[in-house]
Amino acid sequence: MRVKCVICDIINELEDDSPQAKKLRNRPIHTYMCNPCHERIEEKTRVRLATGKFVFYKSSRRIEEDF
């Protein structure tokens, strides 16, 4: 399966039987991101978290499930 990264527009090949290919095929809302872009975003998110000014907020659905 040919896939295109949503950030850098690089075209990659995924095996048709891989879980990621099945997810992309069956759920069109999911998008593909190549490994270098994913790692770059992950690293920048960790840096933002380390500053202490970035906070993850819990969704209302999770709060309801906790009670």
From TrEMBL:
<dbReference type="Pfam" id="PF09963">
    <property type="entry name" value="DUF2197"/>
</dbReference>
<dbReference type="InterPro" id="IPR019241">
    <property type="entry name" value="DUF2197"/>
</dbReference>
<protein>
    <submittedName>
        <fullName>DUF2197 domain-containing protein</fullName>
    </submittedName>
</protein>
